[in-house]
Write the structure tokens for this entry.
Amino acid sequence: MPPSRTAPAASRWAWFARRLAVVVAAIALAFVGWTWWSSILPGTYSAMDMGVPEYGGGPGSAAVHAGTHGDSAVDADTTAAATGSAGDPTTSVTDLVADPGRPVDVRVELVARAERITPAGGEPFDGFTLNGLSPGPDIRATQGELIEVVLRNDDVPDGVTLHWHGVDVPAAMDGVAGVTQDAVRAGESFTYRFVAEQSGTFWYHSHQTSHPQVVGGLFGALILEPAAEIDATADAVAAIHTYPGGQRTINGATGDGHVRAEAGATVRVRLINTDSTPTSAWVTGATFRVLAIDGEDLHSPGEVEERAVGLTAGARADLEVVVPRRGAVRVQVPGASLVIGPDGAEADTSSAPGETVDLLTYGEPADPGLDPADADRTFSYDIGRLPGFLDGLPGYWWTINGGILPAVPMYMVDEGDTVVMRIVNNSGEVHPMHLHGHHLLVVSRDGQPSTGSPWWVDSLDVAHGESYEVAFVADNPGIWMDHCHNLPHAAEGLMTHLAYTGVTTPFRLGRDSGNDPE
Ligand code: C2O
Ligand code: CU
């Protein structure tokens, strides 16, 4: 009830202030409600409708300014690719395959199951296997060969896929549920075919509900050997993985693994970090060299002593070690190790060295075959964190260029573009950034140019407060995830896509689609 005319001014003010507070609260509530409501994603949507197209100063920018896309990140019908440049023909991602006429060189069948696993020396848990194993079998092929992998899902309830991490496969073979294929349901199968154009250390993992499935065991090593026989170097795979319950393993076994090698033998140790967090490796009993990172050889890598090598989530590092005349050499990671030497030979353990090999200055420079100064497009990938709603859920979510998914940029390129991307992280945590289908040349870190060997990555740790400039050539048409490989972070919205103008996808994401790549 309004105060009477005769009430003192102070009480009239109090009445007014209360009314005002109610109105302000109602407006704030309406705003929060609207923010919540508008964050709810459709039951299914196309990856192409997720995000706001960004053209990085290259062709296509005009279409955005002409107003075909507003701020609304998920549009019902229009797709960025379809409207990218007027009159461009479109290609479905499903048409981007290896030459169907080529005979198969290496054929592998993998059967996925949900089952109880006990890592050697560890405790049982409910996980996932491929052909009854976790990790799944090592897949080996020689550069230039055509690999065919038939994936059958026996009984994994959420469905499965396989993504070939670090292999720049044709887009239809990328294994991302809802973007390049539908999740393979129990009782179904999917055939992957691609030519091994690269050589080096890679890995494969499910990209359907990838967080629980990868942690639970749905992954394996993929080794592509060089076509030209270089020397008689022995090779040892070391897939590092932490299973549920914090069980640290190498190649599925806890504790010390042993690799038989003679005194004097040169061994290439292929370290793969299959976890969501960074790790490091170091060597006791010998010096070593870092031969390759993420399947790309380093140029003139020097000998390393008393330093560790950092491994981003998803990353690989190939170390060359020489077995000493007496004893063995130990490659250690926190919580597990690999002893390499003759039967029964022992090697000391040591604590992690304080210093890490800095790949920005390691090795000798060489022509990387790409000129970042001549970029056709320059993008920002600015990682932050804000309170808000993601698909109706309140939380403190990751942001890209200030927006919570799906209000994130969709990076648009044309085939042949040279692209520079500036990744900046002010989110409070480290993020292992992974772009599918391409390798990134590290140009600089915090403004300091790379002066060592050309440093190519597909997975790059960007710590809080750091900035990296990376460059790549857009030479693999498709729609490619560009996300954090700390898989829970990706599920919390730290993911977007790099899309080629004119490429579309018939697959759908969203809660009713059956596809959930994270
Ligand atoms: Cu290894 Cu998108 O992932
Ligand atoms: Cu992250």
User: Anything to note?
Assistant: The first helix runs from residue 9 to 39. The CA atoms of residues 120 and 253 lie 4 Å apart.
